[in-house]
Write a structure and sequence with these properties.
The chain contains 4 helices and 11 strands. The protein has about 220 residues and is of the alpha+beta class.
Length: about 220
């Protein structure tokens, strides 16, 4: 093999590797910024991600260090925290008008519920999300074919009726075909649907563990 041919092959391989790295970084950056910017706008608090690692070929990967900060002056820094979770998406859809996520699997998330009459941190976050109109944080639609959350736990803290705290497990969550109801669904609508289900399970768990005074305090959350 001539030196010129060897040089050409080396250059081609180098270009392929560079293109692969650029594509990978681009995908990870798109997902990370979308979660952090859109999530923060929707919740009214800081939503952060430590790292995103998604294969540009399979669309499978992991999102690490996902956190939703608590609003206001609550005792703990985060309302929701998960070390890492699995995601599988259609990579090309990231560059289209409709993002298609095949699967999101969250395991052992930690949720903090702090009751301060008449509000609590989870209800404040959900109130912020309810005020966001479809298309306000993103001009894209989204489909999530499967969402599951297992092994979740809730830490409850309240000073209602005397200071108390408890840690409980919450029911697993399984949702399917989100945003795939025959029409196009805005990102805000689909994410809010997931958040509402997670908040519902967290608050029900908090109500079960908090005694009669706590149940009375947050009863209207389920009306």
């Amino acid at each position: 093999m001539s030196k010129a041919l060897k040089f050409t092959l080396a250059a081609v391989i180098a270009l392929i590797l560079i293109a692969f790295m650029v594509l990978t970084l681009s995908i990870n950056s798109i997902v990370k910024s979308g979660i952090e910017l859109g999530g923060s706008q929707m919740t009214g608090t800081a939503v952060t991600v430590d790292r995103v690692s998604i294969s540009p070929f399979s669309g499978k990967g992991e999102i690490s260090g996902f956190r939703v900060a608590n609003p206001g002056d609550y005792s703990k820094e985060y309302a929701f925290e998960v070390k890492d979770f699995y995601i599988e998406l259609d990579v090309l859809s990231l560059f289209s008008d409709e993002i298609v996520i095949h699967e999101i699997v969250i395991t052992t998330p930690s949720i903090w519920v702090e009751q301060k009459l008449p509000e609590n941190n989870i209800r404040t976050i959900m109130s912020n999300m309810q005020e966001i109109a479809p298309g306000e944080t993103s001009d894209k639609e989204i489909v999530i074919e499967r969402f599951s959350m297992t092994g979740g736990s809730v830490d409850l803290y309240t000073e209602v009726g005397g200071e108390r705290s408890a840690t409980i497990e919450i029911s697993d969550i399984e949702l399917a075909d989100l945003g795939d109801g025959g029409g196009r669904a805005a990102v805000e609508e689909v994410i809010r649907e997931i958040a509402e289900k997670v908040a519902e399970e967290a608050l029900r768990g908090a109500a079960r563990s908090g005694g009669e005074q706590i149940r009375d305090a947050i009863r209207d959350l389920f009306d």
